[in-house]
Every structure is written in C-alpha cells, then in structure tokens.
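As the work plan foresaw, our protein records have gained a structure token line. A representative record is set out beneath this paragraph:
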Amino acid sequence: MNKRITHVIFTVATVATFSVINSLNPLNFGTITAYASSYELTDLEMQPSGGGDINLYENDNYTKELDNSKELKKTYYAKVSSDRSKVVFNTSGFDGTVKIFKDHSSKVYNDGDPISVFSGKTTFYIRLYDVYDENKPTNCKQEYKVIVKKYTSEEEKEMSDDTQGDIYLKTIELDYGDTPLNFDREKSTYDVNVGADVKSIAIKAEPDDGATTVKINNLTVDENDGYKKMVNLDPGDNKIEISLSQEYEEKRTYTLNINRGATTANASNNVSATTNTNGKTASSGDANSTQTANNGSTNNNNENNDINTKALNKWIKVGDKWKYNDGFGNPIKNTWYYDSTYGRTYYFDSNGNMFTGWLNLNNNWYFLNSNGAMETGWKQLGYNWYYLDYDGKMKTGWFEDSDGKYYYLYESNGAMAHDTTINGYKLGSNGAWIK
C-alpha cells in the first residue's frame, strides 16, 4: 500500500557539480546549494498525529493510489476519518527551508508540527525555499499541494454500511489476554474505556481466513507478528480502525472507540494498564531507573528477571540491558519506540535490547545517546560536530542551518568541516562559510 511519496533524484557527479559552483558568484551561495540538491523532495509523508499512515492518491475520487515509479506530481489527495483532529507532514531530501501552510490560515508550520484539520476539504501547501521571507510566503522555489478530505461521522456510517463484505475477524483481543469486548464478528463497532495511565495498547486482530489482509490504523499485521500492533493512545477519545480486504475486493471494517482517561471504577470494560505483582504495583520507569516488581527487592536473580519480563507496557532491566515490553509482556525488537512520557525515541535490536551509539539502518546513520535516546540537531562527539535531522538521520554535504549560515558535512563520515576550504568556499573555526 502506498503511503508516502518517494521520488528518486539523479544527482550530477560531485566534480561536475562543484565545477558549476566554482564558476558562480559566491554571493549566490544559497542558490548554489539548492542547485546541488535540486528543488525537489525525496520523501513526503502524511500521518495522523497519534501515529499510523495516511495514503496519498493521484485523483480526487481516491481510486488511483500514488505510483512511486512515475515522476513526482505536485498535487495529491488524501482522506481522513472524522476522529482525526490533527495531521503531521514529514519531509526529507531538500537541504533548504521547508514550510507548511494550510488554506484560510496565516499560521506557518514546520516538519513534524501537528496541524488541525476540519470537516470538509482542507488544502495544505508544502513549500521549498532558499531563504524563507515571512513577508512573501508564496515566493518559494517549489510547491507541493495535498488536498485532504475529512469525513463527518454521518458520512462514515453511510459508507460503512455500503461497503461491508463477507469477510470477518476471528477475534479481537486487547492487551490483557481476555477480550473485554464481547466480540461478535458481525458487530463492527466497540466502545472501550481505559485508565488515564494507559498510554499505549496492544491490539490483536486475527482473521477468519488466512488469505485476508488485515490493517490496524492502516498498518498491515499478519501471522508473522501474530496479527498484533501497538497503538499509542491520546488522552480522551481514540478511534482505531481495523480493516480487512481480499483480492476479490471484499472489504470489512471494525472500529474501536477507546476513551483514555476513565478511572477503573468507571471503565465499563475494566481495562487498565497498571499491573500488580506480589503486592507491589509496577509503574512505568524511564531508561535511567531499574524496574522491579518483587516487593522492592533489587537483587538480579532469575525470579526477578522473569517477573520483570512479564510486565506490560513497561521499561525493564534484564542483567545490564534495558528492554521495553509491549502490552503482551513481550520485549519489542527491531523497531523504533517513541516514549511519550519522556518525549524521546529509542531503538531496540534483534534481541530486544535498547541500542546506544551509532546505528546504521537502511543506509542512514543515527546516534542514540548513553540513555538510548535518539539525538537530533547539532551533536559534538569527540572532536567532531555532526548534524542529525529532525528524524535523527545524519546529514552530509552542504547544509544551511536555521540561523542562515552554511556548513559542510563530509560525505564520508558526516563530520563538520572547519578551518578549511571546500571547492573554493572558506570555512571558519566554527564551520560556518565565511562570505
């Protein structure tokens, strides 16, 4: 399923590119840098603010999904459900300034900012600049447009009644093993109340037929992951959609309306994220504290490790390694995890251990500090400075910082160049280009 714009930009060989740069006036350096990287994005992604993905389409009746093999278009369409109050845009591939606008609003947004979306159609503009001038917001080098349709609850009900096919789930299970839903495969909507301390919940949605594709909030789950997915919960109402489809165009949607904030006494389905083991309540810890659940004993024996590894939605420490257990008590593996309590992102390796140091993933470098948190922005490591993008990716090549200064980050290792000259451009002791 296409859910992001990917566009391959063929770059000119380094020698040829900088031959052009050297022939230009240094006063036009902003244009030079943009020329080297092109006024194009390599990646544009739209997401709900609570996580997941939103598909992009090439037509306004949402039948032709984005074709990554074709040349990048400048206008796309998307649709969101009635419960989606905000969306987030993430971009990459352009070294200049990216700003996001929406129609009928003068507010300016950056990558990753939650942006409100209202019922009906809203047009978002993603604009690329050499230098952004707040007095001339339309004076950009490139513009992408995404037209978003937000449905009302009445429209969704009408569409749901018309599209339910003859395919079903075998079961829906939440974190706690026993389904608190009184599941009926013919029933499409369920209301669940959970406590305010439930920040994420694991959902298992197993189909009747193994040939059925299952998606939870638009992300595919299958037998390899046990048809399970961790879903973050915002305070208040959360709408989670479980969609089924088969190649013969049969479709069905189940909806979970989960309200986070109800007390245990008021929770009609008696769902809570707090667990009690041997008389000691286990609460969420951070990556700098040891999680124990054996009446306060901190000895690192096998019994204690076994209890810790059964904790749900918790940080635990096994030996000298930090792990994070999902809602089924299993350590998460080979994945990023954003902990909303601490506002930091962590990575867990194939053994479920929290990763620290330099991480190479899908040909991108990331740095996770000694506490496991992913770093962003400028970072000094040893004698070298590095710049890590908003999503943690190490940048290389020419780079314009938010202060309007230009820096060069070596292609070989990402380290900032300083006290040197790169293709005729002199860099000072702080790495900034001396104009």
Summary: The chain has a mean pLDDT of 76. The chain has four helices and 30 strands. The two ends are 47 Å apart (CA to CA). The first strand starts at residue 4 and ends at 6.
